[in-house]
Write a structure and sequence with these properties.
The complex is a heterodimer of chains A (609) and B (274). With 609 residues, chain A is of the alpha/beta class. In chain A, strands 1, 5, 6, 7 and 8 form a 5-stranded antiparallel sheet that branches. Chain A has a 5-stranded parallel sheet with strand order 11-10-9-12-24, with helices on both faces. A 5-stranded parallel sheet of chain A has the order 14-22-15-16-17. By secondary structure, chain B is an alpha/beta fold. Chain B is globular, with a radius of gyration of 18 Å. Classes of the chains: A alpha/beta (609), B alpha/beta (274).
Chain lengths: 609, 274
Amino acid sequence: MVNADVKYLKFKTYLNTYCPHCKHTFNFERKDEKWLVFKAKYKEQDFELKLSPYLDVFDVQTTVPLNEGDILSDLKCPKCRKSLVVENTHCEECGSNAAELIITAFSKLIPFFICLKHGCNWHGLTKADEAKIKLKIPRQDMPEQDMKLRVTNHLEVPYGYTTELAQLEAGRCLQCKEPKCVNGCPVNINIPEFVRLITEGEIDAAAKKIKERNILPAICGRVCPQESQCEARCIMGLREKPVAIGSLERFVADYERRMELVKIPVIKEKKTKKIAVVGSGPAGITVAADLQQLGYQVTMFEALHETGGVLVYGIPEFRLPKSIVAFEIDYLKKLGVRIELNHVIGRTITVEELLENFESVFIGVGAGLPVFMNVEGESLGNVFSANEYLTRMNLMKAYRFPEYDTPKPKAAKVAVIGGGNVAMDSARTAIRTGSSEVMIVYRRSRAELPARHEEVRHAEEEGIKFMLLTNPLKFIGNDQKMIKGIECMRMQLGEPDPSGRRRPIPIEGSNFILDVDLAVISIGTGPNPIIFQTLPDLKRNKWGYIEVNPETNETSIPNVYAGGDIVTGSATVIEAMGAGRIAANAIHKKLSGDEVEKDKSKDPELVIV
Amino acid sequence: MFQILRKQEMAKGSIIRFDISAPKIASKAKAGQFVIVRVNEFGERIPLTIADKDAFAGIITIIFQVVGKTTALMRSLKEGDIIRDVVGPLGKPAEIEKIGTVVMVGGGTGVAILHHVTKAFKEAGNFVIGIIGAKDKDLIILEDEMAAICDELIVCTDDGSWGVRGFVTQPLEKYLEERYDIKEVYAIGPIPMMKNVCKMTLKYKVPTMVSLNPVMIDGTGMCGGCRVTVGNKTMFCCVDGPDFDGHLVDFEELEKRNNLYIREEKDSLLFSIR
């Protein structure tokens, strides 16, 4: 009964539905864009069935006017008088009697159920059939730039879904009653709901649904590690591939932006209290947007000359176009957030001074101190930290040198040390500068690569070589103190370490020299010291990051909150946003709570007077 | 946006002085600290040491030598023009205490910064000996200002066109030989000069601080481009410096790292001329 070829049904197609016995076409009327009306006669009475044309996504509803106790067992084709009822069954919604009909669309048999209870209105597929059919729809990949073409430019690699592709992909969602994906999301976006809205064509509403929880969907859709978060929990992933939640999120956000559907909310109640947000990365943006919308006056301080933090200095243009970041920042400005560039907190202004002028301070400065390997030759010419390499390329736009003044680091053979997203970004940036050979040098195996799967796949497609199970020992320079090679050692995997990844063990005597003339070290970051230099009271955890109360994200200094990489160490955009939201809620609770308390303290005084 | 309030050409236009309106930076700046400047949308970020400040008027002074694309571009700016980004004060301030007799050695444009630190040393109550040098008479800057602060001042030029003929190390050696009460030497200038000063003071075992000026991008410790090897440890000049114990600094490495982009610098200049 279940049809394997359903995926070929096209959207918004007029469904030519007819009797499976005599091929008599049923009287379907195209009443409006959305619904088809199926008219049938039963006991001299006219029936009206409303069908969604989006049968291929199985989102069917009805308004069948049935009376209690009515039986459809003799619903017959008006022409050949053969019964359309296959069997009597029960309703998925209310459990009462239902009939399974058989109709044909595009000469494919579609099992079709109608509930017999008056007023229930359920008609459609059983959940089990639906799930079986949905598994047959393949996961839709986003169209991408050609691999050979894209290494010659810095434009974004995936073009994103068309509406049709997005609806096809959204149709794969099983709409679980207890969705696991929502728990996999650090900010608990109502994923099934926004996906359902896509299938209904309500893309604007889907965008609003996401934005209830996540204000930066265009960015998170591009940079979140979905395969280890929401998509990892997707039930579809157990049997087939999970629903492409990230790509759908990105589609929805891009659609909203391109169609100019983003509206600036009216702030109902303006408050006099002022909030300082230090750092304009994902954590800071979330805090600023949340509190500004609640009516507070937010000022955001940024050390660099551009807002966005890691989104502008770290993530390359081909992965996250800077115009998208600029759009989100513009949204903040329209909300009324004040932005102060070129302010290094701890230098230009200290946190103490901020506390004099602001009720609360949120610190979201990021990790921002590159970690080196402390091996010989690390200060040779053309050895970069990934932070420096990417900052030059992205923030300073060195890839457009000499149009922009910052010189572009460039060499024929490039090695990137590390296996995370930043390493992939560096390697893919290097191949775009015209390097003939770019290698990723990583000491564990492919399975342990911490980067997003999509980034690893893109890197491989672009011709980046993966030197796995290889550990660099030292950098070798020429007489000009420029790097000419890396001495490396082969590794093998041993027992799992506390993080669950198998520990790499050196293979003695496997040393070899890798010829390179540019190296990028991408093995992580540490806490930036500036804020601690002028704020010695700020309590730090054992890794040197800021210690916070996990429920409020408040630090050891009252009214100073922190979140993002400066608390957790290098993590993801969405985790930073989640931390920002916790802090924003806590700040609001505390500040509005203060107001309530003051009001209470006023009351007794009034009584005494 | 930061406005240039005053522009002064020194040393036949090869050294320029800007007074820039930057009230927040001026209120915080201490001797030895620097700012990062980005002239316009297309500009690079370059570090420039704060040569002086007026916290009351909200003005900082920067003095720079025209050496590359960005400094050439800055020379073309006039009074009243705007510099897009100035961020600071960055770096740790110079450690200034009353210690007795100090020798302040400056070469070329380094004198601009030396002046600010010298002032601080003098105000702290030290006996200050200044030694400043340059290639020739035209390149000597801030001589009168230095003379006003220093208890003793020696001026030298490589060609002998002004003051004593020779390098700054020659009068320095004389002082180190004659005076036993020199507690510290503070040197700032071209890398070969600082290297030679440190070589000499090591011989006499006099503590020496140098102020380094490596290639820098963000100036907040984020990129690590400004790393220098000090006593076999990797230090970030922007957050751990810019002042370091001169006897521990690997000057050769610093010199090589600072010359990494000479070719690109030329390309960039040629591009803007075209």
